[in-house]
Design a protein that fits this description.
Layout lengths: L2 H7 L10 H17 L6 E6 L2 E7 L2 H4 L6 H13 L7 E7 L3 H9 L4 E6 L24 E4 L3 H17 L12
Parallel strand pairs: 3-4, 4-5
Antiparallel strand pairs: 1-2, 1-3
Helix pairs in contact: 2-6
């Protein structure tokens, strides 16, 4: 059994910490699914006790839903899996820094920890433009880890938008990047 497989399935503890890069790779797989659908390639997974309990990738254009971001879909799936809306003791892995809407959902869902790949200079609400998930004025704050496989996540986004400009990929929807 590989280390990655063990970390994706086994419980975590002080002796067996979570492998952030392994879980981020799972989020990158979700982002690739979005890419293949002509959606902005952002993917997310929610992990509880060393297991992925929620997955999501952008489906804004497919569903005609401005809230269908990867994080929102992954958190909804995780809440259903847990049978409750509180995602305390969960870690959200997402390939792009969450926007204000998703950061608000992270706070409201009581997510314990957020790990993201690429920073978002236009909408990042977990440290780049502002930091909603650690704002002391709010009733919950999440631990935050930035830049995990950030180069890979950033390259996937750059490739997607380059192919859109070149017309080599059929992008769903309008011109407004997430």
């Amino acid at each position: 059994m590989s280390t990655e497989t063990n970390n994706l399935r086994g419980p975590t503890s002080a002796l067996n910490p979570p492998d952030d890069s392994a879980f981020m790779r799972a989020a990158l797989k979700e982002a690739i699914s979005a890419y293949e659908k002509g959606e902005v390639p952002v993917g997310a997974v929610v992990v509880h006790e060393g297991r992925i309990i929620g997955r999501g990738h952008n489906l804004r254009e497919t569903l005609n839903d401005p809230t269908a971001h990867a994080e929102m879909l992954a958190m909804t799936a995780a809440s259903e899996a847990r049978g409750q809306w509180r995602l305390d003791e969960c870690t959200l892995y997402v390939t792009l820094e969450p926007c204000p809407m998703c950061a608000g959902a992270i706070v409201n869902g009581r997510v314990k920890r957020v790990v993201y790949g690429a920073s978002d200079p236009k909408a990042g609400a977990c440290g780049t433009l502002f930091n909603l998930v650690q704002d002391a004025r709010l009733n919950h704050r999440a631990e935050l880890e930035a830049g995990v496989l950030g180069e890979e996540a950033g390259e996937l986004l750059k490739s997607f938008f380059r192919e859109c400009r070149e017309g080599t990929i059929a992008r769903r929807g309008g011109k407004d990047p997430e």
